[in-house]
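2024-03-11 09:14:02 INFO worker-7 job=invfold-0412 stage=load source=structure_tokens
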């Protein structure tokens, strides 16, 4: 099941020019980022001037083989973590994307695991954060 994708949609927004699925997602967290100036007045009253509210998503993967993990990481490095089109299944149709960045602070954890009768001593789990532009 596809949960989240990152890449570039074509000009007509009818298909992906290139895309990479965030592999084997099992956990997804969402956060809101308040773009604002916030402080207390001399009287102690909280005041804020809000410009925008942006979202970020953090995805954790199940164990991946070394090549599955680094295919995705190397894709992002090749793109230099530039802005791209982001889609998650909660958006509905794949044409419903937003511009976003994948944070270069990807957590890569080495794990050993078994899949389909094979043992992988050099597996990886990824924690990836996508931030709305």
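2024-03-11 09:14:09 INFO worker-7 stage=emit residues=133
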């Amino acid at each position: 099941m596809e949960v989240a994708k990152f890449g570039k949609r074509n000009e007509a927004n009818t298909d992906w020019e290139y895309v990479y699925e965030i592999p084997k997602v099992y956990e997804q967290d969402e956060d809101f980022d308040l773009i604002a100036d916030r402080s207390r007045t001399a009287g102690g009253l909280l005041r804020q001037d809000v410009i925008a509210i942006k979202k970020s998503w953090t995805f954790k993967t199940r164990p991946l083989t070394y090549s599955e993990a680094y295919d995705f990481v190397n894709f992002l490095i090749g793109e230099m973590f530039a802005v791209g089109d982001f889609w998650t299944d909660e958006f509905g149709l794949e044409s419903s994307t937003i511009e976003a960045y994948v944070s270069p602070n990807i957590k890569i954890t080495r794990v050993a695991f078994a899949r389909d009768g094979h043992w992988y001593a050099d597996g990886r789990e990824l924690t990836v954060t996508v931030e709305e532009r």
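2024-03-11 09:14:09 INFO worker-7 stage=report msg="Strands lie at 4-9, 16-21, 25-40, 46-61, 84-88, 98-102, 107-115, 118-132."
2024-03-11 09:14:10 INFO worker-7 job finished
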